[in-house]
Amino acid sequence: MKKKLLALAAVALIFAALNLVPRSAQSGPQRAPLQALVGDASCVQPQWPAEARRYEIEGATTLRFEIGMDGAVQNAAITRSSGWQILDEAALHSIAQCRFQPKLPAARDGTVFPLQYVWKFDDAPAAHPLLVAGSCQPSERFAAFREADPRPSGKDGILLRFLLTPEGVPARIVAEAAGQPPELAQQAAAYLQSCRFAYDPNNKAEHTDTAFGRVVLR
């Protein structure tokens, strides 16, 4: 299924609207004009990873960064994950390509800049496959699968993204382990493969073969 990509808000925020609110590590919120702090910036358009497009995953990655005396970005770090490692890594890679004027006051003062990358498709929602009630096999380790639950993996569940075969069987499952043991992520994927999915016959929107959700731990 072909979908259009919405222009990433990260670029507009920092390089078009110049709408970042910088924070100094020493003195709290700053209100100086951004142009005076960063001068001219040179960046490239963030690249949406091909795998993320295929799985049609969306999200917002929030990060922070500083500017070195040479104008390069330094100490970039995720402050709030999109839930998807592939999107977070693309955000870090994108901000690392930016170059600012050298010897800026913001570099000397250690100013910290927040930034958010919004990864979103701009067309109408498609008809996603739905879990067939009662189709998942009973498990002593997992309680259920919660479709379209985007919360990151944690002690209570594993976030998965996957494609579906024409028969409604999950395939090409990718787990966002987020620190959980790899064996547990593999078990969660195996559990998901026991589930079956189908489309709502009353939903006439274009069908997509992508889905995501969380396998809930007992």
From TrEMBL:
Record keywords: Cell inner membrane, Cell membrane, Membrane, Protein transport, Signal, Transmembrane, Transmembrane helix, Transport
Organism: Duganella flavida
Domain TonB C-terminal: 33-128
Annotated Gene Ontology cellular component terms: plasma membrane protein complex
Record localization: Cell inner membrane
Main localization (coarse): membrane
One example of a Gene Ontology biological process annotation: transmembrane transport
Coiled-coil positions: none
Signal sequence residues: 1-27
Family, per entry: Belongs to the TonB family.
UniProt entry tagged with the keyword Repressor: no
Membrane-topology descriptor: Single-pass membrane protein
Any one GO MF annotation of this record: energy transducer activity
Transmembrane segments: none
Record-given protein name: TonB family protein
UniProt cross-references to InterPro entries, sorted A to Z: TonB-dependent_transducer, TonB/TolA_C, TonB_C
